[in-house]
Each structure stands twice: as structure tokens, then as C-alpha cells.
Amino acid sequence: xxxxxxxxxxxxxxxxxxxxxxxxxxxxxxxxxxxxxxxxxxxxxxxxxxxxxxxxxxxxxxxxxxxxxxxxxxxxxxxxxxxxxxxxxxxxxxxxxxxxxxxxxxxxxxxxxxxxxxxxxxxxxxxxxxxxxxxxxxxxxxxxxxxxxxxxxxxxxxxxxxxxxxxxxxxxxxxxxxxxxxxxxxxxxxxxxxxxxxxxxxxxxxxxxxxxxxxxxxxxxxxxxxxxxxxxxxxxxxxxxxxxxxxxxxxxxxxxxxxxxxxxxxxxxxxxxxxxxxxxxxxxxxxxxxxxxxxxxxxxxxxxxxxxxxxxxxxxxxxxxxxx
Length: 324
Ligand SMILES: Nc1ncnc2c1ncn2[C@@H]1O[C@H](COP(=O)(O)OP(=O)(O)OP(=O)(O)O)[C@@H](O)[C@H]1O
Ligand SMILES: [Mg+2]
Prior knowledge:
Elements: E1 5-18, E2 25-39, E3 44-48, H1 55-63, E4 70-75, E5 78-79, H2 86-92, E6 95-98, H3 102-105, H4 112-122, H5 128-141, H6 158-170, E7 176-180, H7 188-205, E8 208-212, H8 216-222, E9 225-230, E10 233-238, H9 240-245, H10 250-257, H11 297-301, E11 307-308, E12 314-315, H12 320-323
Parallel strand pairs: 3-8, 3-9, 6-7, 7-8
Antiparallel strand pairs: 1-2, 1-4, 4-5, 9-10, 10-12, 11-12
Helix pairs in contact: 4-5, 4-6, 5-6, 6-7
The site of adenosine-5'-triphosphate has 12 residues, from strand 1, strand 2 and helix 1.
């Protein structure tokens, strides 16, 4: 069976200026560098990694919002056409994006109801009465009341606004939601509610999620599989429980050890030396080697491929077996 979303060897480069103007020289930044994964219908792939590792760029490439430099995105076996074309718009209906900041995603001048109905109006689907019925049903599905229909975004709480964003995203019956930090702008007390809503909607509607978050505990809770990115590449991917319990890549190990725990931690916190490197100056060999306490001579010269380990997960590390 083909997966709902198949991403193969996805790459995106940007030409940037290195150094201060006017002396800077052109340089190539590899924001996403050969990323491949599959996401079956109704499942969640969590995507984690430090700021700037390429998570949002990956999300935008998947939706065709940023043109690829290389590689391919397939939805339900169909290759994603160039953005803006009628066939792209047709496929695009099946994938929606949920951003971090709901207020930025909503139009402050339009009522909640108008905004929730908007996708149907844009795609010229249904009669006005049918659009109204569907919007009211959708408000109910995301835990809002009918009286929210005539309210405006600024009159609602952050959590309620994110529910409206979800209601609007679901109006076209998508199969995939790409959620880029969907809860990080929300109050901690609201985050769990929105995550529970996402889980309930997945159960009810069979949605697939590409779920990007800095909150590793939340990612572990919601994901069926997790991919860890470092400098534009996936360095480890697999079952969340196994990946978080016994990381096979030293970078995952460091990320996991930084998760705050309430239980008096037996785990030794691994502190990463050095800053995340500039993606314009990607280190030779394994890009992680300058920060890695396990690095050997081989790591300095030979880039490790993402390979399948005995337990089924993937890791891009020459020493993964010893580390896990
Ligand atoms: N339009 C652009 N022009 C030049 N560089 C870009 C552009 N968009 C992204 N980048 C660079 O690509 C890299 C990846 O960026 P991206 O936004 O995907 O990271 P991210 O993992 O989403 O980070 P964060 O966790 O901070 O959201 C960064 O180095 C960023 O500076
Ligand atoms: Mg981002």
C-alpha cells in the first residue's frame, strides 16, 4: 500500500550573502538536504530539531508553498504539481497547514463564521445554506459554540483562535494537516486541550499529521513515528518510545537529555559543546562531529548515511550500535 505522503530526497537551497554588506560573498545555504520519509493515512510523524534545522522549510516544501530545489513530494501516489496550477490547487485541498500563531493566520476584520466558511467560498463548494451548516458543525467538532460564529478573532482566547484555525483547515475535508508548532504560542494550560483535540480529530476523521514541535514530550505523546533533523538532514527516525528511551544518534541523545523531568533524573544530562553550526558552513564528514563526544577520525571525513539498525529504526551515525 502506498503511504498518503511520500517525500523522497527533498532539498531546498537558498543563495545567501555571507558576511556583512557590502563585503559579503554569495554562499549556498542547504536549508533541507535530501530528506525522505513516508506518512501513512491517519498517522502522525513528529519532526524535531534545533531552531534553523529545516523543519518549517520541510513543511512548506511538502505543501508546495516553497519550490523544491530537488527531490519529490507525492500525495496519494500523485506527484505534487507546480504551485499555483489548477492541479496543485486540487491536491492542495487535501493538505492544510496550521501555524504557530493563530491570530496571524486569521483575518481580524472578518467574523469567525465568515472565515470558517471562506475555504468553501474560495473553492465554490456548496450553496450558502450548506456552507453555513458545515461551518456550524465544524465549530462544534472543534469544541466551540454556535455563538462564536459572529465573534471576531480579537474577542477570543488563544486556544479558541487555534480551534478556529483548525475548523477552517478542516472545511475542505483534508487528509493531511501540517502542524508547525501548533501549540507553542498557547498558554501551557491550554496546550494539552488543543493536543487532545488534535488526537480526537485524528481518531474521528482519520487525519494524518506532520507535527513539528520543540516540546519533545508532546511529540512523543502524539507521534506514531519521530524524525530528528540536524542541519537540514534526518539523523534519526523511528518509534517514539524507542527513540526517546534509547537514542541511537548522539544528537538525539543530547536533545532527549535536555527534556525536563519531574522524577529525580538518573539520566546524565548531555550538554552539547559549541553553537549549532551555520548551515552555510556545513562541517565536513558528519555535520554533527564538532559537537559530538563520540566522534572519531572517520566521522570527520565520511558523512554517515541514514541506515536501518537491527531494531528497525534509522540512524545516520557510524557508531549508532554502540551508542544505542
Ligand atoms: N527564504 C529564505 N532565505 C534564506 N534562508 C532561509 C529562508 N528560509 C529559511 N532559510 C534558512 O533555512 C534554514 C532552515 O530554516 P527553517 O525555518 O526551516 O528552520 P526551523 O527548523 O523551522 O527553525 P525554527 O525551529 O526556528 O522554526 C535556516 O538556516 C534559515 O535561516
Ligand atoms: Mg520553524
